[in-house]
């Protein structure tokens, strides 16, 4: 008891009202306004570009993948924090749950990709030119593409695409349903039963993380990699997995920092946990670069004509500028900034790093998607179509954000039935 | 070096870190600057209380890391371009992607070594003799369960009688005079 004999070292208590502050409503209306403005711009550009809405649909795929990353990457990180435990996990739990509950909207975003992009063959050439022999004769596709479409038909066919996608959405939906439902039941339960819930969440999450990774690998192949049917890479799914965690962590920290202006997050979000999450960001910044550079180095040293064109498509013809910016925003800036331990402890500065990280995801997805198409490969050029990438994804993400904020308001912002709760209410240095 | 004689300082012993931090804060606001806290484990508040806000280990680590990076990258460039150029499957001599991995490894290695040895050097280690070990209660308690504040005699505010009275005001277990 002598430890508490002086100064401000007293345990805080949570405020009685744990619901989200009123300004979250303002965020939502702001997001809706931005979404509407950019939708109008996107439609105007769609008419101006005169490419039968091709770029609009590509940019839609771009926006869909980012929202899918926030929603389902959020689910993955939610399961990871159940497995790892830790105080950062408690404070980040409710924002992550709110991200996962946006799945219905993400599924709606998927439908145009599946129906127009694949079934009507607007962006996936393996279905557009399923009759590869004729297409080859008419010089619509190259020899390599014809060979790949023929050889990979067992996987790259409409049944496989729809079956896999719907199966993945169904499984993820089931997981999200139970993760959210049990989380509320756990809070309503009495404290002595925490052990039971912890075990239950650990069991579902351990299997879930593994299963989600496998499913993500497959849909990353179907939705993005198959845009160029000739290319293959075994590390592709990993890059999406790490990229999702990278973006989700940025968004979750940004949410907490913005919410910390008012109760209850003001009390619950200590600098210690903020610092921990900053360190986790740093780890993902490194892991992301490790995978991206590793894949590049292996393909560069192999220098095989089957693999290297994928990088040449993304480096030559001005694409090198985007690749360099991708490197700068994805790694160089966050890495050098996050090296400082002071920065991780100052909210306004950490928020800047999180914005850089989310922008990097956006830029990286552009670099992954657009050069797959023949008019853009090794040829980054200005057109109305290219500007679709600056409008459609922004609109999609804004509407997604509005839905996310709605979900954030649905529940108390802090999970209460957790032994870590007492710890995050302690003063920062409990030992002194 | 001539043998230093006289009083090194006054050493106050406390039972809890809170008492130590309170005394340290008091001494700092009373104008004492040449002083140090000795605890069995890291107490960040004690360091802050005596005005020790930052350490330069991170700067030393950064400089070490950058030196490692530049050294290895230059070494590889020199070897591949000038000293021993070899044509590897038609690639240019200056093939930077291949240089990245060793350069990265050296960054980590030099940063790690700089952190470890830089920390030791900044702590003034290795040190063969320290006057505080002349105090029996320091020898027995400083690494187990006692918390010490030493006000050193080189401080201009230091006065054998007044400083002892000042320290007694914080109700320490004991205040002992430490000789060089």
Write the layout of secondary structure elements.
The complex is a heterodimer of chains A (432) and B (180).
Chain A: H1 23-49, H2 54-84, H3 87-100, H4 103-119, H5 125-128, H6 132-137, H7 143-151, H8 158-188, H9 194-223, H10 236-259, H11 265-268, H12 271-302, H13 308-313, H14 319-338, H15 341-345, H16 347-369, H17 384-409, H18 420-424
Chain B: E1 7-14, H1 17-29, E2 35-38, H2 44-49, H3 57-83, H4 96-122, H5 136-141, E3 147-152, H6 160-168, E4 174-179
Antiparallel strand pairs in B: 1-3, 1-4, 2-3
Helix pairs in contact in B: 3-4
Task: Explain what you see.
The complex is a heterodimer of chains A (432) and B (180). With 432 residues, chain A is mainly α. Chain A has one domain (25-123, 157-228, 231-412). Chain A is 73% helix and 0% strand. Chain A contains 18 helices and no strands. Chain A has helices at residues 23-49, 54-84, 87-100, 103-119, 125-128, 132-137, 143-151, 158-188, 194-223, 236-259, 265-268, 271-302, 308-313, 319-338, 341-345, 347-369, 384-409, 420-424. Chain A is globular and about 80 Å long. Residues 1-8 of chain A have low confidence and may be disordered. Chain B has a 4-stranded antiparallel β-sheet with strand order 2-3-1-4.
